[in-house]
Design brief:
The chain has 12 helices and 4 strands. It is mainly alpha-helical. The longest helix is centred in the N-terminal third of the chain and has 29 residues.
Length: about 325
C-alpha cells in the first residue's frame, strides 16, 4: 500500500504543478512506453513543461512508477525462494553476531590506530545508460508484468482513474498469454495437421494427415480421439473403458504412420502465414482497435524481393562461382 500511496502522492504533486499540461505530459509518457521517442526526448519535453524548481517532481514521479511496478514483479516470487531467503538472512545474522563477538575480543589486543584511505573501500558507482534498457520488441519476448502495469497506469490516468489494482494487472497478463496461445495454435493448425479430441479440443500439432486415397485409411480406428468413461459390450452392458495396452497402441500408431503423407520439411512460421491466419480467423482478436493496428504492423514488416533484385542476386552468385573456379584452376 505504501508504494501506491507514494505513486498517487507523486502524481498529485506533478498534476498540481502542471495543471492543464498534464495531458501533454501523459501523452509523452505513453510515447516513451511505446518506444516512439527516446528517454532523452521525453526528459526534454518534460523540462519544457516544468521549471527548474519543479523538475525534481518529474524524477520522483518516474521513480515512483518504477518502484511500484518492481514491487509487483518481486511479489510473485515463489514461497521456496522466500523461505530460503529467510534462512539465509538468519545465517547472516548469526555470522554477524559471531563477527561482533570476535571484534570485541580483538579490540583489546589493538594498541594503535592504523590510518587508511576510505576511498579505497567505497563502492564504485555504476551508471546505467540507455543501452542497458531492454524492451519487449528488442528481446522478442512477451512483456513482463511490470511493463504491463506501467502501461495500464498511464491508460488509467488518461481516462481519469486514480490507480490500478494488482489483481487487474494479473488478469491482463493471463489474458495476454491466452490471446497469444490462441493465435499461435491457429497458425500451427493451418500450416500442419492435428487431431481433434471430443470434436473440440485440438492436440498433437504437427501430426501427418492420412492419405484419403488409400483404401485402408477409412478402416483405421484412432482410439485417442474420444474419451468415453464407459463402453457398451455385446450384451448391451456398460463397463468402464480401459486404455488399450502398449502393444495395441504401438500397432495403431504404426498403422497411422503407414498411411500418412510426409510433406517436405517446413521452416519457421513466417509473417505471411500470420497475416493469412489473422485474415481468415478475424474473431481471434475481438477488438477492432487492436486487430487493425496488428494487421498494419504485419503488412509493414512484410518484405519480398522484386524480380530485378532476384536476378541481380543470381548474377552475383554466378560471378562468385566463376571466380572460385578460376582461382582453383590457377592453383592447380
Amino acid at each position: 500500500m505504501s508504494g501506491s500511496l507514494d505513486l498517487s502522492f507523486a502524481r498529485k504533486q506533478l498534476q498540481d504543478t502542471l495543471g492543464d499540461d498534464m495531458t501533454a505530459y501523459l501523452q509523452n509518457l505513453k510515447l516513451w512506453f511505446k518506444q516512439k521517442i527516446s528517454k532523452e526526448d521525453f526528459d526534454l519535453e518534460a523540462r519544457k513543461l516544468l521549471t527548474e524548481s519543479t523538475v525534481h517532481l518529474h524524477n520522483e514521479f518516474l521513480l515512483a512508477i518504477m518502484s511500484r511496478c518492481q514491487s509487483l514483479s518481486t511479489s510473485l516470487v515463489p514461497r521456496e525462494s522466500s523461505v530460503s531467503g529467510r534462512v539465509s538472512e538468519q545465517s547472516r545474522i548469526k555470522q554477524k553476531s559471531k563477527l561482533r563477538r570476535k571484534s570485541t575480543s580483538s579490540r583489546s589486543t589493538l594498541q594503535k590506530f592504523v590510518p587508511s584511505n576510505p576511498v579505497n573501500f567505497a563502492p564504485q558507482a555504476t551508471y546505467k545508460g540507455g543501452e542497458e534498457i531492454n524492451f519487449a520488441t528488442r528481446e522478442l519476448a512477451v512483456p513482463d508484468i511490470s511493463m504491463v502495469q506501467g502501461r495500464m497506469l498511464v491508460c488509467a490516468w488518461e481516462t481519469g482513474l486514480e490507480d490500478v489494482s494488482d489483481t487487474a494487472v494479473k488478469l491482463i497478463m493471463q489474458a495476454i498469454e491466452n490471446q497469444l496461445k490462441n493465435i499461435i495454435s491457429q497458425v500451427l493448425s493451418k500450416r500442419s495437421g492435428y487431431k481433434v479430441r471430443e470434436k473440440k479440443f485440438k492436440y498433437a500439432m504437427g501430426t501427418q494427415v492420412l492419405n484419403p486415397y488409400l483404401r485402408h485409411t477409412s478402416q483405421i480406428d484412432d482410439t485417442s480421439t474420444e474419451s468415453e468413461a464407459t463402453s457398451i459390450t455385446a450384451n448391451a452392458l456398460h463397463i468402464p473403458s480401459r486404455k488399450p495396452p502398449f502393444d495395441i497402441g504401438s500397432a495403431q500408431a504404426a498403422e497411422q504412420l503407414s498411411t500418412a503423407q510426409f510433406p517436405t520439411s517446413k521452416g519457421p512460421v513466417t509473417l505471411f502465414e500470420l497475416l493469412e491466419t489473422l485474415q481468415l480467423h478475424r474473431s481471434s482478436i475481438a477488438s477492432h482497435s487492436v486487430y487493425a493496428p496488428a494487421i498494419e504492423r504485419v503488412i509493414h514488416k512484410l518484405w519480398h524481393p522484386s524480380r530485378e533484385e532476384i536476378n541481380q542476386e543470381h548474377i552475383h552468385h554466378q560471378e562468385v562461382t566463376i571466380k572460385q573456379l578460376h582461382s582453383q584452376s590457377i592453383v592447380r
